[in-house]
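Can't paste images in this forum, so I'm doing it all in text. The chain is below; anyone willing to post the predicted structure tokens underneath?
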Amino acid sequence: MDLTEGTEKQKHERSRKMMLWFGIGSLIMAFAGWTSAYIISSKREDWLQELELPSAFFISTLVLLFSSFTYILAKRNVSTDNQKTASIWLWITFMLGGAFVALQFYGFSQMLANGYFFTGPTSNIKMSYVFLIAFVHILHVAAGIISLLVVIVQQLRGKYGPGNMLGIELGATFWHFLDILWIYLILFMYFVK
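Text version of the structure:
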């Protein structure tokens, strides 16, 4: 189908989806750059070979995975016009997003307690990358939480339903992307020594 064909609503939906995918593409490039720099820097003599990632990072991964599942349930309930249950699942997703961020900061405190710092005389380039990559991802999860709040407000106003799913679909796509991105990052930091 030609992108200029269809109703105004269809054109609007396609343009919104395309804008989201352009944003996701740029985030992929940014994190690809940081992980590439991580790999290149791993050849340095002062690279910390043994690093145990904080347990909070692994727990937060499970929390984020579960939040994607709850977002799926919310979207499914909107599509079947079960609005009350959809709202409950959206609120649960919101709380899990907050728990993810809290666990990430707890992970940072675990690293600090083990003597790993972002900068300073006792810091290490590897730890600086771990802090940077995790923190930038947290910032994007914060953006995801803000978009989720917009979705929740719109849901409570009755804006979504079987014939109007665009906002919740865009929010869910971005949320699932953040989930997949974190899984990639945690596996990357765990396996790339």
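The chain has one domain: 56-191. The radius of gyration is 19 Å.
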